[in-house]
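Ticket #4471: structure export looks truncated?
Reporter: QA, pipeline team
Priority: medium

Steps to reproduce: submit the single chain below to the structure queue and open the exported record.
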Amino acid sequence: MKKFTFKVSFLLLTGMFALTANAQQPAGTKKFGKPFITASKNCGTTEYEKHLEENNPKRASKEQFEQWLAPKVAKAKANRIKKDGNGTNEIVTIPVVFHIIHNGDAVGENENLSEARILSQIQVLNEDYRKAANTPGFNENPVGADMEIEFALAQRTPNGLPSNGIVRYNIGDDNGWLMEEVELLKPQTQWDPEKYLNVWVVDEIVVSGGWLSGYAQFPVGSQLDGLDGQTSTANTDGIALGSRFVGSENYAPDGPFEETRNMGRVASHEIGHFFGLRHIWGDTVGCTGTDYCDDTPLAFMANYGCMTGLDSCPESDGADMIENYMDYTEDACLNTFTADQKDRMQAVLANSPRRKTLPTADSLIPGTASLDNDGAVYLLPFNTNCSNAFSPVIAFANRGTNDITSAVINYSIDGGQAVTYNWSGTLTPGTDERIILPQLSVAEGDHSFSVTIAAVNGGADALASNNSRANDFTFDTIPAESIYNTDTVKITIQTDEKASDITWILMDSDQNTVGFGTLYEDTPGGVLIEEEIAVNSNSCYLFAIIDNGQDGMPGGYYTLETTDNTLIKQLDGEDIDVIDVVPFGVNVLLGNKDVQRGLNATVLYPNPANNILNIATTDAANTPEGYTIYNSLGQVIDSGKINTALQSLDIAGYTDGVYFVKLAKGSASQTLQFIKY
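Actual output as written to the record:
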């Protein structure tokens, strides 16, 4: 499976090339404009909680949650002290479902993890949460606690069907997942969060500066107990993990694994968050943060590696508890939850929505139900080229017991007239197939796409709950003034003496790196970098220059130029604030920039057009034989023959919007785009 090597370092650059399905994303926001998340192979729960609070203003703040939780923790602690030496709490079992998001790899390859890997993860959770003797989860720490929580894979689906607690979805790609994209797939695939701990596994969760090992949704307080008007975001509740961090290499060595986080402790950490635990340094640098647990000593900041005996806050009692699961140390160092952490977890488990119902759910009772004809549909994140045309991709899955040989699927943009797609083939139970729908186009701004299964095997689908999907997205065009006629891009960079701080990258709209430079040698007077890189017509590109030292390039500069020396961008080094990003297009089908494609030198003009659209061919020998015009939903608006090198079409009666003209000559064809206003 191909990996896009540079995406993990420069993910913030790639957003201009995606129609991101994200209902909460403000109009006009591009991914490369989002703040840095300075994490690599670490937990993203803190950043995720900030994201939830920003997009759900009524969601309880950290302070509100802690105010709600404090008396419940005190009660749990009092009960623990009272019962010390006189028994234990009832051991509870949490039903877990793993949603494996893959891109077509065979089971056991790459991110499509084997059942053995998943079972090894369950084994690790039970060792860690039970402080199991003679396992890596055991400790002799005086404050080390048996959390009295166990985990098991679910044995029934929410509809009562038999299950092994592992569901596989062929809806991924090999370029990693933004957190926003993970949030898109969660509501589509989630099982009832009142009955299951949902765990999503994707190949990589990529952020600027690296990738996340995982992240969790923190619990909320019960609305019955206060927290006026809070929102719960129930349809995204659970944890997400990068596939390389799942399971233990000790028990299921079929990799790949992350080198130092290869024992399944990332899941132990994230589930700790899921049940209300915070990082032991309190997410505040400087010995001032708190995780609300008195028996975890203060730490200056997150710890890495395995530095035994470290005391980063010497003025407070106790050395850093690098062995605590809620630190960032390597898996081999971790083996401790504390008594106070147990009190927090038990309080959440007894009181928090979608936590308190898990131990009593029927999810571990083997399912016996059956569904004959059950199709399910899932939306993949939209990708687009640099025009406003894109082809939605869906995954059509058979979740029933019969083979599916036909299906009727309806889809639409912005609630407009539905378009019908008739699928036929053979889909056996438990399998899926990707469907690329006909090309659509949208104008700049906010939009909504929806898809619904209308029929399966000539009749009604047996289960309606997985038949419909919808997502909102925003499309931002590249301004006409940022589109250039050129065959190459000339890059000139004059660094300062700290040349090793400078990294640059040029990417195309398919997220391929077409130019890259880093690890330059520090030199008095700086380094002069000169590159000329070939670019393609009808393509979008993004150039970025990054100052890892975050102090600019005093005395330096950079320029981007076309083949004929037209300036795309010039910036003095002092003005580079960590990163400068330049999106631009090359001969893009926007405005009056028409492209000759295929064998035909054919253009449309004027474009945009109001009353008359001309189809002009400069090579009479290659004049198209006919044309077909489609609207943005793929519906045929007009068609006809072409008998002259300049043919005029009356479009005065067309509704304003984007249209496509398909030109045909023999077996060859090309499609051009125009805008009616």
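Status: closed, not a bug. The export was complete when the record was re-opened. Leaving a note from the reviewer for reference: Confidence is low (pLDDT under 50) at residues 1-39, 224-230, 589-600.
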